């Protein structure tokens, strides 16, 4: 190894000016300086943005527009609990049933106790999690003081109850649900009201009105419900089943119960029978509705569920809404692909070529090959009992691999 190569191997730069003299220049690491404050002292980007976008806490503060709740004193609650505990311990029959594993707990009483204690606040937290208050009432919220019992009638005696955000298919929600609540109880005190009460029930979907992106779709409107009897209320808008389009995912169906101060004239929200399936007549804004009638209405109950597309909606779009059924696809960002090479090394031939083709065309070709092997009356061929035992001859290696994967049902076959 020459003298100059030795210095090159060791990381030294050699510059030969002439044949008689050589100047050696070593590569040294230059120092650096920090501009501004060090990372431990300087503010982060999040802190800078927060300081520039200062929000007034009084302006952004959330407002409780619901009913308050008169709570008993802590001593009174503790006294009741101790009395109940003493009565339970002194009950000998209850102890015998518990020891013999014959004690039956009434779950309806457990549910009733839960609703009266922490169930209201849990429902409010769930509604916040799903964005119900934000998309319906803006910066306002309320604690549901009146429990709503909503269930859809299915085949036979089975019911599909509306819990706090459960999934109900459009086929199950095709008919109006059964709704009940205690309209004779004062939401503040929890005691009997002592006079006639009137209520308003509104069912809307904040995700469904695809012709107006800023409005909700009104599905049901019943006003002046006397003493909780929903069947005797004034129906201003007939029930319209949910119709989530295909490809948009889950949508929220929200039921809001308002307590009226007295009978109200809400005829401006009446929807004619001829406009039942006209979506242009069903835009609704819960925030505007409450802002206009906030002196006479107070939200008291809440229930909601989620729904997504199923096959029953095709008939609803064609027969009721009188429109074509929309289908949406998510526009994924195109993946980065390097320039296509004439001879890609260590790349499967078919997979590399399909990367640079339209994915829909690839799916179409695969479906055509699959249908070509399917008998119109007898269906597809039966799979081989021992797929790897049958030899595959006179085909390229990449095609042999594809045939083997297709026989085993692995690989890209699972994507179609």
TrEMBL record:
Q: Which gene encodes it?
A: Dsim\GD17162
**Where's it mainly located?**
mitochondrion
Q: Does the keyword Coiled coil apply?
A: yes
One cellular-component annotation, GO: mitochondrial large ribosomal subunit
What does the UniProt entry say about where the protein is found?
Mitochondrion
This protein's name:
Large ribosomal subunit protein mL38
Q: What is the lineage of its organism?
A: Eukaryota, Metazoa, Ecdysozoa, Arthropoda, Hexapoda
Q: Which CDD domains match?
A: PEBP_euk
| Database matches in Pfam families | PBP (PF01161)
Entry's family note: Belongs to the phosphatidylethanolamine-binding protein family. Mitochondrion-specific ribosomal protein mL38 subfamily.
Q: What keywords tag this UniProt record? A: Coiled coil, Mitochondrion, Ribonucleoprotein, Ribosomal protein, Transit peptide
Organism equals Drosophila simulans
Q: Which domain of life is it from?
A: Eukaryota
């Amino acid at each position: 190894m020459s003298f100059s190569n030795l210095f090159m191997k060791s990381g030294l730069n050699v510059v030969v000016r002439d044949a008689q003299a050589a100047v050696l220049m070593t590569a040294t690491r230059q120092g650096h300086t920090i501009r501004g404050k060090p990372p431990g002292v300087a503010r982060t980007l999040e802190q800078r943005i927060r300081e520039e976008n200062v929000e007034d806490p009084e302006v952004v503060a959330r407002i409780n527009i619901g009913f308050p709740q008169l709570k008993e004193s802590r001593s009174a609650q503790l006294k009741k609990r101790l009395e109940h505990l003493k009565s339970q311990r002194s009950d000998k029959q209850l102890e015998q049933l518990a020891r013999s594993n014959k004690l039956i707990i009434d779950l309806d009483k457990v549910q009733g106790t839960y609703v009266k204690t922490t169930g209201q606040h849990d429902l409010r937290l769930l509604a916040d999690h799903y964005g119900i208050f934000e998309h319906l009432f803006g910066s306002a919220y309320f604690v549901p003081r009146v429990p709503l019992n909503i269930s859809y009638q299915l085949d036979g005696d089975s019911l599909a109850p509306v819990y706090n955000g459960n999934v109900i298919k459009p086929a199950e929600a095709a008919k109006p649900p059964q709704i009940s609540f205690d309209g004779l109880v004062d939401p503040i005190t929890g005691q009997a009201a002592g006079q006639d009460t009137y209520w308003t029930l509104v069912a809307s979907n904040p995700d469904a009105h695809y012709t107006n992106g800023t409005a909700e779709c009104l599905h049901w409107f019943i006003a002046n419900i006397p003493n909780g009897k929903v069947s005797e209320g004034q129906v201003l808008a007939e029930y319209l089943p949910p119709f989530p389009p295909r490809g948009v995912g889950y949508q929220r169906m929200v039921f809001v119960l308002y307590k009226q101060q007295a009978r109200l004239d809400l005829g401006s929200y009446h929807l004619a029978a001829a406009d039942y399936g006209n979506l242009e007549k069903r835009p609704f804004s819960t925030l505007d509705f409450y802002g206009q009638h906030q002196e006479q209405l107070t939200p008291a109950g809440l229930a909601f569920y989620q729904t997504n597309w199923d096959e029953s909606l095709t008939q609803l779009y064609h027969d009721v809404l009188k429109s074509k059924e929309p289908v949406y696809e998510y526009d994924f960002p195109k993946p980065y692909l390097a320039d296509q090479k004439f001879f890609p090394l260590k790349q499967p031939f078919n997979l590399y070529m399909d990367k640079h083709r339209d994915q829909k065309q690839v799916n179409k070709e695969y479906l055509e090959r699959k249908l070509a092997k399917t008998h119109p009356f007898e269906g597809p061929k039966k799979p081989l009992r021992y797929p790897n035992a049958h030899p595959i001859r006179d085909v390229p290696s990449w095609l042999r691999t594809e045939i083997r994967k297709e026989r085993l049902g692995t690989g890209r076959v699972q994507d179609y």
